[in-house]
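Proteins fold reproducibly. Take a tokenised chain:

. . .
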Amino acid sequence: MTTKLIRPMAAIVIAASLAMAPQAMAADAAAMQKLLQEVQALKKSYETRTADLEKKLKQLKASQTKKSAKATARSGSGRDIKDNSFNPSIGVILNGRAASFSRGTSEIPGFGVGEEGERGSEGLSLGESELNFSANVDDKFYGSLTAAIVREDGEDKIELEEAYIQTLPGAALPDGARAKAGRAFWTFGYLNEHHSHSDDFADRPLTNRVYLNGSFNDDGAEFSYVLPTDIYAEIGGGVFRGDDFPGGGSVSGLGSWSAFARTGGDIGDNQSWRLGVYTLRSDANSRQSNEETVTFVGESNLYATDVRYTMAPTGNARDQELIFQAELMYRDDDGTYNDTNAGTGTLSYDESSFGWYAQATYKFAPAWRVGARYARLHAADTPAGFADSALDSQGHDPETYSLMGDWTNSEFGRFRLQYNRENLDNGKADNQFIFQYIMSIGAHGAHAY
């Protein structure tokens, strides 16, 4: 092929290529645009599905939380599923105090008071320290043990406060049902279920000191059932050995039984309430009080009602919270009393008495609270033959005024200062000042509502 022919053909090829280039580029651009549109559609579809999944997840969590609240909380009673992978949670509570009293004695005329119901030691004391062990036994049962270390009569002693097992959801019981057996702070009023270190005051009110000797934690078993209702409603009861105050000296090993019913709910988003009624019946074969100088034998029927109201003014209870709480207890004793110290001999006794307290606490800052409490006992009429004995009320109804303020550095440490004015008899008032610290080391479950 000659050079003259090659040059025109090359020019034609180049010209054709240049003419086709825009068409190819246009085709590539269209393909790229289509691909981008497909990617955008895929991205939008992914985001939509992700949002739907997140919404369903939130709804599922909310549903589980709501069901758990009904099945586990006694209106927030801490009935949560304990799960620490079967490794025991171990905790220590250090509860020390310093106290000053203006009177040398604090007897409560008209009532037989047990040893734990007394006012406590004056001066510096370690108070009651606790050692806690708790864990899931397996997928159906939970176990807990609490030992209190106290100093009595110059000696350190270990007292077993609680040692119990309880069922977990999935233990073949109906939803909302729970069984508990062993030794525990059983359901009677508000304070009895709580360990004393979780109280809002450094000491317990007169009602719990006189009628329960501080707290009722006999050996026994209890069953409770949270009803499937829109608001919290719970019923239950138990049977107990009958050795613990207000019982004593059990012969059959089944000397006490209880029953209770409670209800509660929310008022809007920032308020809640709870109301309960209770009964505890005991056959006392030898109930000791007043340093074992007074013995009661007979039937002791104890009734109680409690109410609790909480409000978070700002909507966040961690910042501010107002709590009102009250309990009333009524006791009917039918049997015989013997006061060896007064030399009364064994006398028939069929009398009733009652007492109550009301308190309010206000958290005005995340770490600071103040509180006030009033407690009063209404003694039974003094029967013939009981003059000058521990059951002689001297025509006086004991009462106590209390003020407290505490500072909580964290959920593990609290310092409290409290003032009490006790008018327990016709003598002078007892002015008391108590400084208390409560420190938690290790694992410790949340306190009940």
Summary: Residues 1-6, 69-81 have pLDDT under 50 and may be disordered. Residues 1-72 form one domain.
